[in-house]
Amino acid sequence: MHDEMNQPEEVRWEGKFIVAKTRGKWEYVSRSRGIGAAVILAIEEAADGRHAILVEQFRVPLGRSCIELPAGLVGDGDEADEAPSLAAARELEEETGYHAETMEELGRFHSSPGMVSESFTLFRARGLTRVSAGGGTVGEDIIVHRVPLDGLNDWLEAKRADGYAVDVKMLLLLAAGFTAP
């Protein structure tokens, strides 16, 4: 066990959604109320090829729009005991307008463990059907992108050149193991 784990965890500041904490010399943040996240890897299998379903959303901490996989919080609304797979299905449909026949859990991951204790459960959406325009809930202003997998890297580079941020989870789409049928 590391010496830091022998130190007490102290809450320095708590807001509605995040908590800033210290433990020894470490400073980090976590989600309030133990809320987790669900991230969805959605690849549409269509007559015109395989397409990644992505979202674009303005992110205040970055000061610009970010290209991301669809995602959302688990149990952040009326469903405090919501199953992560149900949250993933709900968020996919809200954000992108796609309904998935099934959600396959791919595991739990930590995106920036040096400063954030938050983790997310990754799901692979299968059997996609477009049922609405998507765009998220009121105020989210999400833009949905349907991007051919064989041109994804060039598309992301063009977005970067235009000043967009690119979420680290986009690396999943660039790794053959996660995008295989």
Tell me what you see in this structure:
The protein has helices at residues 84-96, 152-161, 171-174, 176-179, and strands at residues 9-14, 18-23, 26-31, 36-46, 49-59, 64-68, 71-74, 98-110, 119-130, 143-148, 165-166. It is α+β, with helices and mostly antiparallel strands. The protein has 2 domains: 1-34, no CATH class; 39-179, Nucleoside Triphosphate Pyrophosphohydrolase, CATH 3.90.79.10. Strands 4, 5, 6, 7, 8, 9, 10 and 11 form an 8-stranded mixed beta sheet that branches. The longest helix has 13 residues, at 84-96. The model has no long low-confidence stretch (mean pLDDT 90).
Assembly category: single chain
Mean pLDDT: 90
Binned strand content = over 45%
Our count of domains comes out at 2
CATH architecture term of the largest domain: Alpha-Beta Complex
Radius of gyration from CA coordinates: 18 Å
List the secondary-structure elements in sequence, H or E: EEEEEEEHEEEHEHH
Question: What would CATH call the homologous superfamily of the largest domain?
Answer: Nucleoside Triphosphate Pyrophosphohydrolase
Low-confidence runs of at least 5 consecutive residues? none
Q: Which range best describes the helical content: under 10%, 10-25%, 25-40%, 40-55%, 55-70% or over 70%?
A: 10-25%
Give the N-terminus to C-terminus distance in angstroms: 41 Å
Shape: globular
The CATH topology annotation of the largest domain reads as Nucleoside Triphosphate Pyrophosphohydrolase
Helices, by number, come to 4
Number of strands: 11
Main β sheet profile: 8 strands, mixed
Helix/strand/pairing category = alpha+beta
